Amino acid sequence: TDNGAPEVVADEIPAMPINVEFPQKFVNIMRVANEPASTLVFQVTLECNNQQTADLINMHKIRFEDMIIKLHDSRTRDELDDVLALKTSIQRQAKQKSNDLLQRLGAPEGEMQVTEVFHNLFMVQDQG
């Protein structure tokens, strides 16, 4: 039955994605006892379903950047031992939070969305 609502396909890959790349950032990793100080260096790209979405993200880039930094901040060394799980978790959260933020900014639901979040860089640097 057609109720007039567009069909939403989970994790649909946009035909012509527009990427918004954020600058490389770093956050401190929480220290345990006398471990050396470590830093998590990362860079994230948001894949958008269209140019309008990318334009809206760029217009409010500092809000998206702040959200991305907070998702990476205050991690522990133990969390970073399973890099794949942590990256996947951060990417999933960043996608959800990006789409929530787009809604708060007035984006029409379903028409403007972040379809994927990618890490261009994700690296732990130990201070020695």
Describe the structure.
The protein has about 130 residues and is of the alpha+beta class. The relative contact order is 0.25. A hairpin with an 8-residue loop joins strand 2 and strand 3. Helices cover about 40% and strands about 25% of the residues. Helix 2 packs antiparallel against helix 4.
Question: What is the 3D shape?
Answer: elongated
**Helical/strand content category:** alpha+beta
Rg calc: 17 Å
Strand coverage percent: 25-35%
The major beta sheet can be summarized as: 4 strands, antiparallel
Any key phrases for this structure?
elongated, disordered N terminus, four-stranded antiparallel sheet, alpha+beta, 128 residues
Brief account:
The chain has 128 residues and is of the alpha+beta class. It has helices spanning 51-59, 61-72, 77-81, 83-104; strands at residues 18-21, 25-29, 38-48, 114-126. It starts with 17 loop residues before the first strand and ends with a strand.
